[in-house]
Amino acid sequence: MTIKTDRLLSRAKKLLIKGNLDEAELIYLEILQSSPNNRDAKSGILMLKNKKNQAPIARQDLQTAISLVTEGKIKKAIDIVEPLIKNYPNEAILYNIRAVCNKANQNYTGAINDFTKATSLKPDYAEAYYNLGVTLREVDDSDNAIRAYQNALNCNKNYPNAHNNLGQIFLVKGDFISAIEHLEWAVALKPEFAEAYNNLGNSYLGLNKAHEAINLFKKAEELNPNFAIAINNLGISYLRIGEVKLAKENFEKAIDLDPSYSTAHHNLSGVKTYTSNDLQISQMKSLIRKKELSQKDRIYLNFALAKANEDLGDHKEFFKFLNEGNHLRKLELGYSIEKSENHNSVIKQFFPNKNNNKKKNITYDDLTIRPIFIVGMPRSGTSLVEQIISSHHQVYGAGELRNLSNAIIPIMEEHSALKKYSLSNEEFSSIRQEYLDSLSRIDTSKKLITDKWPLNFRNIGFIVSSLPEASIVHIKRDARATCWSIYKHYFSGQGNGWAYNFDDLAKFYSLYDDLMNYWKNLYPGKIYDLSYEELTKNQEMETRKLIKYCDLNWDQNCLKFHENKRDVQTASALQVRKKIYQGSSNDWKKYQDYLKPLVKSLG
After folding, report:
1. pLDDT tens digits for range 26-49
2. For the chain, domain boundaries
3. Which fold has domain 337-602?
């Protein structure tokens, strides 16, 4: 077969798929004139005859089915579509309609099969690929949903909804760069697309660019003044840069638009002090009594009502709502402490003793960016310490990065499956390069970057082996104060499942303490311990020692950290805007009668 014939056949096939039968027939006839025995052309002509002889679907039947689906009359729509499929088994649109019906009936397997059938019959069916992506997202199959949306965009690159949904998946996965790429396509193609502007704002928040996010959330609100979600996110953005008054105003506005918006109620609870006649309290109590309330909404409201009763000094009601919120959150996450016990046990197998961790002949190129890791338990003061260090003119505060774990976990899982726990020099080099590449993509010209993910305390062996030039600052705080602060807090991520139960908390703290002692014994002199309590008592002395350890010249701004306007992502966004104060580690004592089980478990 000649190259020309091959191209003609390919073109004819595409025309056939699109339903351009007459044009396809002309090409097949042209091929047969020069190659009378060409089997593909003969098959094409036969297929054309079958299609032309097949009676077309009555447009009225199709329109009726589509209208019924739009009106939500799913059973009647199926009654029309089913016999049509029997009579026209090769019509992709019929499978797409039936798939929509299956999805409406929560028959997700049937919907996925029908959308897939529609795309196999019509490979350029962008709408069916898009619908397939939507369905796959609903069953939490995000990887295949990504492929479905990408196929939709291959058929039609100017498909704003597909760009938006694909961007949203990347946003959830934490791939903010890819999310922004698609979401910018979405708003360029559809300038009135408020939802895409909201998603784009969240993506910029993920990159610690709150000021850019503010403009995008404002645009979403401008396009849709009743968009409570975007207005709530605008409040979060203002909170991240320390604009508490503006944050509060936007949370209140979101609640005015949607009084049942539990997320906004929870956010508002964190930026106000309640009084006994506060109308929001009765509003939240009314909401939480509703039987149809989702578990997620119930969790948010319990934590918010706990905060309200803490402000009112009603300890009994405070702990009633706090304990219920934590209980529901633990159920939601399905966490078991064995998961953390196993994780720590496996980590130790990768770094069993000092001799095994002296890697032979491993040399690295000089760093162009030097990381400063700030580790410890959550709520131990890691945000405060990052704010201090990042106030130095040579340092950029990147916040809580997951980049190191993203580089480590696949390698750990591969070795654990084989029960082989010794990493090669090449694997340590790979971890190093992947992590440094991720830092290089951060939008800063500064060469020192803080990575304040507290749970990097589990990765210290990998840090020492892959990034020996890095500084490791470990924040140590009173265990009772730390665990109490954790228990009071709702973590938005899925990773702290141990935080919502006294026994789990105490056991996880013990695992943390054990692993830190293990690292200190394994790598003496590599970890800088900083006491939170000592820092609050002797701010300047402890800050000077900290800055010296980080191999930096003294910068007076480190004492004025509360004036630093950087974007702070964590729950400590308000605290780090204030001057250091003493006594916070004793707050738990006010509730010690309620905390006896926790204190006893901590020993």
Report:
1. 888 888 888 888 888 777 777 776
2. 3-53, 337-602
3. Rossmann fold (3.40.50)
